[in-house]
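Look over this today:
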Amino acid sequence: MAQLWGGRFTKETDKMVYAFNASIRFDQRLLEQDIRGSKAHATMLAKCGLLTEEEKEQILTGLEGILSDVQAGSLEITDAYEDVHSFVEAVLTERIGEAGKRLHTGRSRNDQVALDMKLYTRDRIDETDGLLKELLEVLLRLMQENLTTYMPGFTHLQKAQPLTLAHHLGAYFEMFMRDRSRMQDIRKRMNLCPLGSGALAGTTYPLDREMTASLLDFDGPTGNSMDSVSDRDYLIEYLSALSMIMMHLSRFSEELILWNSNEYQFVEMDDTFSTGSSIMPQKKNPDIAELVRGKTGRVYGALMSLLTTMKGLPLAYNKDMQEDKEMAFDAMDTATMCLKLFTGMLDTITFKTDRMAKSAMMGFTNATDAADYLVMKGVPFRDAHSIIGKLVLTCIDLGCAIDDLTLDQLKEICPVFEEDVFDAISLETCVGKRLTKGAPGPAVMQKQIELYSAYLAK
């Protein structure tokens, strides 16, 4: 197979060198973006008088035919071609003749691959944004259904204060909402078209870069041709954002794994998102959550790989930058699959609400409210803190919750206690009186849910 750059060379490339240099094995997934960019380039060339209308139509028809045939399976992309760009140009020239050789006028593979990768990344950003929205919709439904589902809140993995499942899930809603904002932010910043930058110094042909950018739905052309072909910031940003998403999914998975354990029994995974043991028939394992947690490191690895690749590269394009694709593609695919599976798992999960409420009661999560009760009765806070500490020790000895003690038992520890203490330290009261913005009180949470609903409806 003759190379696009073969004229300068008198010897054939060593087969091992050719294989090492080639990228067709992984960059063939850029075919659709390469065809789209080439169609826009041909349209612009015709407008600028660098192609005839007949040549343009031949090229457009030929490009559409290549894409259609590959998608239908009647045309195979093989390793006889160095990369997807070589494949498209070679097949196009074979099919339409001389007009196919004119397509590359005013264009280098450097700005061509920069365009293809931008188009592909932009498409994947939109896909990720859509998957995040689907996850947020599931979270919102669960929040609406669990405004008064009481559970313990934790610090240091120790039961701390009571809250609701809606409030706990709302923390993840905030995380994934930030992830969506990162998608939109990256997309806006990257949305400039590099095509027309040439190898690094532009071109002497009278190209209309604004037209090309418009045809490809960019906000405009890039402002510096050297930066255009050597920029991978947008991809690093996207991989960083994917790493953040995976970190959030991993934290959520970690909690669900704990909650699914026999020790917690807060949730039960649906059979469709669980697996069993080859030897222990009683087992029902949260494998999806564990795999999401495990694959997080894989996405981190892609980010670190690209950062390391780019850190020492002088301007402009260097072949090292071919390494921007394989691990990035893997990270995109991994994050996409994790988002889809996690959303399905969460949508089918069963929350054991009685068990959660009982855990909050037995974990003394209302101890702070009991101390606040004494403060409201005139006891200094530091004294109240000490009194409730002794009260908790008594409950531990008796194996009961604070609420299970009789008024006489409470008065033995502190005579200030009255009958109204039982209402003051009930889970409903403890949560319901927390009414500052961002707190778990149902009245506050309902308003927050309305804001989340409006956000998703935009």
Remarks:
- The chain has three domains: 6-101, 109-146+163-352, 358-457.
- The mean pLDDT is 94.
- The longest helix spans residues 109-145.
- The two ends are 52 Å apart (CA to CA).
